[in-house]
Structures are given as C-alpha cells and as structure tokens.
Amino acid sequence: MDDIAGRIIENVSVCKGYYRCRIRLSKAMGKVDAGQFVMVKVPSSEVFLRRPFSILDCGNKVVTILYKVMGKGTDALARAARDDRVMVLGPLGKGFHLEKESKPILVAGGIGVAGIYLLWKRLRGRADVFFGCSTRKEVALLGDILRSHPHISTLDGSKGFKGSVVELLANHLSQSREHVAIYACGPAAMFASLKDRLRETGLPCQVLVEERMACGLGLCFGCVTKTTDDHEPYKRVCMEGPVFDLWQLSL
Amino acid sequence: MATLAIDLLGKRLRNPVFNASGTLGYGREIEPLWPIDTLGAYVTKGLSLKPHHGNPPPRIWEEGTGILNSIGLQNIGLERFFDECFPFFKKRKTPIIVNFFGFTDEEYIRCAEAIRPDPLIIALEINLSCPNVKKGGICMGKEAQGVFSIIKAVKAVTKIPLIAKLTPEVTDIVQIASAAVEAGVDGLTLLNTMPGAAIEVKSRRLAFRGGFSGPALKPIALKAVTDVSKAVSVPVIGSGGIMSCADALEYLMAGARAVQVGTATFVDPYAIPAIIEGLKAYLTTHRLPRTEALVGLARG
Q1: Is residue B139 annotated as a catalytic residue, yes or no?
Q2: How many Å lie between the alpha carbon of A51 and the closest alpha carbon of chain B?
Q3: Does B62 sit within 8 Å of A87, measured CB to CB?
Q4: By CA distance, what is B25's nearest residue in A?
Q5: Is B206 part of any domain?
C-alpha cells in the first residue's frame, strides 16, 4: 500500500450520472484483492477530503474506478480532464475471501457493480452475476460482464426481471440445489433485503459496505458500520471492511 | 548541525511534531506508510476506563476546508489498550502521551489512577471537552472552577505529568488555562475541535453536529497559543489546522513548544513526516541550532 501520484488517462460517462475513470500511476500499486478500494485526492481545491472508490480494475500501473455522481467530490471528479493530476492511496481494506467449495454468485445493485467487477474478472466466468438497477440505461454499468449473460432486474421493468435484484436472486435460489456462496455490493437497503430473504437459507454471504470516509486508513474511526458484536459494535469500514459477513452486520 | 529535538516535561523528544489524539488510530495503522518513531511523541486515541462504543454513523461531515466529526469517543478502554496496543509501542522508541476522558469527575480520576507510570509514557493528556453527565451535560472545560477542581483531583492520583487539552468554546481561554496551571497542570494543548453544525438546504434539515477541525481553526488556536503562552509558565502544545511546515512554524513562533497534527493526515497521510522534514530544512536554511530558538519569537 502506498500513496501514489497519478494522471487521468480517461474519464468518460458510461451512462447518465455514471463515469469510468482510468488513472496512470507513477508506480505499481502492489497486489490488489477483489473488493479493496483506493482513496483518491480529486483534482479540485473545492474538495477537502479524499474520496473512497472500489478498485474496478488494475494492472500495469493503471487503476480504474467506476463511480456515480453523488455529491461535491464525485461531481468535481466528473469534471476532471485527461492529464489532470490525482493522488491515489491504496490498495486499502479487506477484500472478498473466496469460499473455494461453493459456486460463486455475485450480486450488485446499481453502482455496486464497481465492487464486484474485479472478483467477476478473476473468477473467469465461473460466477453467476445478478445485477439490479432502476432502468435499462444503467445496464451499461455492467461493461463486459454483459458478455457472460448476467441475470438483470430493473425496477421499472425496462430490461429483464421487473423488481428488485434480491427478489430475482431469491427466485433463482429457490429453484437451485447448488452449493453457493454470495458476494454482494449495493446500497444498505439491498443488504437488509438480502438478509431478510436469505435468512432461512443460512447461505454464506459477504457484502461490500460503503460509508462516508475521512482517512481510509483506520486512523479516525469515522466510517464505521454497526455489527452484531455486542462488545464492539462499530467496526471501521476502511479497516475491518469494506467486506463484511452479512450475518455479522446489524442492519 | 541543526537539531529538531526539544525538551518537554523533563524529557528530550526527537522533534516537536505529534499527532492529535484520535487522528492516528491506535498507532500501528499508519506503519504501512511510515514508522511511528517518526513522531516526536504519539498521542493515543482518547481512552476511558471502560470501552466506549461511540456514535452511530454518519460520523464525518465535510464542510468547506474542514471536517465536522462525531466519533463519540469510541475506544477499546484502558485495559485492552495496555494489553493489545502497548506491546507495539514497547518495541519502538517513540514516547507516548495517553489521552483520556470521563463523563464524571470520578471517571476522570479513576481513569488517571489506572494508568501506571512507565518509562514510555511521558504525560497524560486530559480531554476537557466531554459533557459532564452529572452537571446537565455541560462540557467539563468551560468553567475555570470546574477545570481547577478536576485538574487538582487528577494530579492528586497520578505521578505522571499532566497536560490539559482545552476546548475553544470558552469566553476567556487565558482564564481557563490559568485555572489549570494554578491547579498544578504541567502543560497545555490548545485547542480541541470547535463545536459546529451543518444544515442541508436540499432537505431543509440540521444534517450534522460535531467537532469542527481543519485549516479554518488555525487563526483561532494561534491566538490562544499566543495569549496563553505569554500568560502561563507551563509549556504549550499548539493544535488546530496545521497542514504544512509553515503552519507548524507559525505555532512555534507564537509560543508553542510542540505541535499536534490531526486533520491534515486524512488529506495527506504523509503530512506529518513532510512537516518534520520541512522544519529540519527551515532550521538548516536559517542556521538555527535547534527548534527551541523559534519558540515564542513572534510573540515579543
């Protein structure tokens, strides 16, 4: 892990409100686990803190992130141009831990696809992907996952199953007898719904959690999420996470 | 050859740059980037007698060039700190300042009592910005009388030098500082975060309350350091919005013997080593033999 100077090679809109940014680094970042993230110093004097982004892809001194414009930081990043300088701190946090004996199922809600893409890529097609979003235009977020015929749900029914991705997943699981392990990334509401629908199955499920962050290094205890550990309920998303066992999260 | 070393509370420290409490985790978290021994002293996360869960998220709110935080003093408690974290420091050289807090006078006293002297521990730093639950939640450090009595009581139960970290939310900081000194405090850290709030226009709601930190605090804390270091005889440690070596120099010239860097580390994790290198270069360039030559220069 290190803080590495970089330059933006490409910062393009994938679909309305979502961008993919590729950054050339001045040195290699070291080994990256799927699910790890970077803290990026956005090239704008308006943005004080760094912003955390899942590592979508990396290799050969290039790191790629996929993001949704949510507020001041991502808005400024969306306006950054090719060749703009950024600082990239990473790789950070604990990524996914692969359960070797089980068939991997990857579940993403909206921009949550940024958290599971690298795992999908490393599994080389061995995983089933379930992706849910609001409307068909967001399906573009899947990028080359689309080639592997993912299960898609949209809330408005404009593409694939009409409804939530958790519903789609639950329908699938009820007809399957495979031994599966689930890896998910999405909004908190999706995790709550997953917990609810999967409760009876007791299936192993790891989720990549998002939270407001200041340092990304475990220094400030600003980015905690609540767990079922009564002695120490609040765990740092940047340090003990961002990947947690769904069954240990208090949602 | 210029030396950054300073004398503080009877100890010789490698340099005058510390982290501010709660901004460098339990210490080991920063070591993937730089050794903890880089610091003049490590200030612990605020510790209490019993573990403390802290506040539910969100705990961080970015506001202009600063942060509001509402961590809620989450910590693993004294016992676990000494069992699980202290051995890490025992294998290193950096001296430790143990920051501690309580929600009643009694909790402060019992906490200070429970910290056993150790060659590595050069001081306790008492956080006086906590709400006193037995006095309607009013902050401990806001009244000179309250500060005097708590310092007096804590001094009576510990042999370790005591530093008081003061809140900026007071009418007269010199009066508060003087009360602490009169009660026997050995040093002062100026200042803690400033209580603040954020409104979100879109949702028309009070979006956040917490302690404000960052560069906007610098002039406020610099004034406190200037006025207090002139008025009292104990060493003053400056803290508030130090982002660069130039900021640290301002604090030293204002009368601080050492500085604490907090929020800057979140923006640039190498801020502390960069400030130390900058100070070294400044001394060399200006042919100053040691840091102490700078202390209070601008105050007159």
Answers
A1: no
A2: 10
A3: no
A4: A219
A5: no
Q: Any long-range contacts for A159-163 (C-beta under 8 Å, 24+ apart)?
A: A159/A135
Q: Select from B19, B29, B200, B217 the residue whose CB has the most chain A CBs within 10 Å, as the one to mutate to test that interface.
A: B29
Place of tokens 């929020």: B263
Question: Nearest CA to B18 among B261, B279, B280, B194?
Answer: B261
Q: Does A220 touch chain B (CB under 8 A)?
A: yes
Edge-to-edge strand list for the sheet holding B205-213? B60-62, B67-69, B205-213, B194-200
Name the minimum distance, in Å, from the CA of B266 to any CA of chain A.
Answer: 4
pLDDT beyond 70 at B67: yes
What Å distances lie between residue B188 and B164, B167, B177, B195, B225, CA to CA?
A: 5, 11, 7, 19, 9
Residues B221, B188: Cα–Cα separation, whole Å: 12
Nearest to B32 among A1, A215, A225 (CB): A1
> In chain B, how many domains are there?
1
Chain A residue with Cα closest to B267: A49
Q: Write down the ipTM of this complex.
A: 0.94
Average pLDDT over residues A60-85: 96
Query: Which among B85, B111, B130, B245 is annotated as catalytic?
Result: B130
Select from B54, B58, B74 the Cβ nearest to the Cβ of A212: B58
**For residue A69, which of A22, A140, A18 has the smallest C-alpha distance?**
A18
* Chain A residue closest in CA terms to B52: A232
What are chain A's domains?
Answer: 2-92 (2.40.30.10), 103-208 (3.40.50.80)
Q: Do A215 and B30 touch (CB under 8 A)?
A: no
pLDDT > 70? residue A67: yes
Q: Are A227 and A239 in contact (CB under 8 A)?
A: no
Structural domain of B228: 6-56+72-198+213-294
Helix, strand, coil % over all residues of chain A, rounded to 5: 25, 35, 40
A223: which DSSP letter? Answer: S
State which residue of chain A sits closest to B44, comparing Cα positions: A219
B242 is a domain residue? yes
Please tell me the distance from the alpha carbon of residue A79 to that of residue B176, in angstroms, as a whole number: 48
Q: What is the CATH number of the domain that holds B274?
A: 3.20.20.70
Residue B63 lies in a domain: no
- Cβ separation B66–A233 shorter than 8 A: no
CA distance B38 to B104: 35
How far is residue B41's CA from residue B19's CA, in Å, rounded to a whole number?
8
Verify cis geometry, omega within 30 degrees of 0, for the bond prior to B119. no
Cα–Cα distance between B144 and B154 in angstroms, integer?
15
Whether residue B237 is contained in a domain is answered as: yes
Q: B273-291, pLDDT tens digit by residue?
A: 999 999 999 999 999 999 9
Query: Rounded to a whole number, what is the distance in Å from the CA of A149 to chain B's nearest CA?
Result: 37
pLDDT in tens, A148-173: 999 999 999 999 999 999 999 999 99
